[in-house]
Amino acid sequence: MEQKLLELQNEAISQIENAEDLKSLNDIRVAYLGKKGPITEVLRGMGKLSAEERPKMGALANDVRSAIQEKLDEKLNRLEQEAVLKQLESETIDVTLPGRPVKQGNHHPLTRIVEEIEDLFIGMGYQVAEGPEVEQDYYNFEALNLPKGHPARDMQDSFYITEDTLLRTHTSPVQARTMEKHQGKGPVKIICPGKVYRRDNDDATHSHQFMQIEGLVIDEKITMADLKGTLEVFAKKMFGSDREIRLRPSFFPFTEPSVEMDISCKICGGKGCSVCKGTGWIEILGAGMVHPNVLEMAGFDSKKYTGFAFGMGPERIAMLKYGVDDIRHFYTNDIRFLKQFAKYEA
């Protein structure tokens, strides 16, 4: 039995030395040290030995197992190191290769328009105000002279979350909240840029999510002339000093009187073309004098204070300024479209 154990030890060590990969090495371990291996088979015959020989054979068997396991560990470490070296050789980085240039981005056209408008109005003494996009029905409608059941609510098909909570349909709630914070004391002079949401079918000129920038001025002796002068400065700054504006009567529940503003067509110079549908004018925004009911609900004395408000869509302005024919281009993140605006970077 002693001779058999020593032969198994030499045989196993020889095979271990010749093993070329980790799988072969594991097979050798299972073959010699497993429960069904030859060493276990030899030890099953220990019952035939005398009481004096059994301890001696048990100790020898343990020594054989230890010797085989030691060789297995040595070979395992060696094979693992070789595998690491092979991996390093295959993944060698040539540090002499030229680097890959990092592409430099540019401002999104809508971001550019919003920032340009903000800079213009900040220069005129306005402050930028923001508010929540998930809004209360009160601030989105009721505080703006749109009580429940008002037919004008149907013009803004809304995303309601609960009966009294919705995704804001315009940035006018920011105006209502700002007026409320002033507690009936002027002046107020703000613009409110932000995203708004309406249940609309997406097409070339409509989107269920879009941006608005609204403005509000409240003070003593504010007149329609102040509104017209402000809008004229805005139009000439955004579209060129040769642009003309005109105001047409309109209706908005939160302003009285209400107007829509057109700018002279850049393409035909006001003579009439397909872009302006032969009129020579292009609609750009809505505006008006703040309705007395809106002032009173916010705590202002409508006999002392007056004001004007206006609202515009940055997408609409960007489409006119840059000649974009589909509003969806602004939201598809097509790098080919966005690259065209790099030339406008300062």
Automatic annotation (TrEMBL):
The gene is pheS. GO terms for molecular function: ATP binding; catalytic activity, acting on a protein; magnesium ion binding; phenylalanine-tRNA ligase activity; transferase activity; tRNA binding. Its cofactor is Mg(2+). It is an enzyme of class 6 (ligase). It is found in: Cytoplasm. One of its GO terms (biological process) is phenylalanyl-tRNA aminoacylation. Its EC number is 6.1.1.20. Keywords: Aminoacyl-tRNA synthetase, ATP-binding, Cytoplasm, Ligase, Magnesium, Metal-binding, Nucleotide-binding, Protein biosynthesis. One of its GO terms (cellular component) is cytoplasm. Binds 2 magnesium ions per tetramer. Belongs to the class-II aminoacyl-tRNA synthetase family. Phe-tRNA synthetase alpha subunit type 1 subfamily. This is Phenylalanine--tRNA ligase alpha subunit. Pfam families: Phe_tRNA-synt_N, tRNA-synt_2d. SUPFAM superfamilies: Class II aaRS and biotin synthetases (SSF55681), tRNA-binding arm (SSF46589).
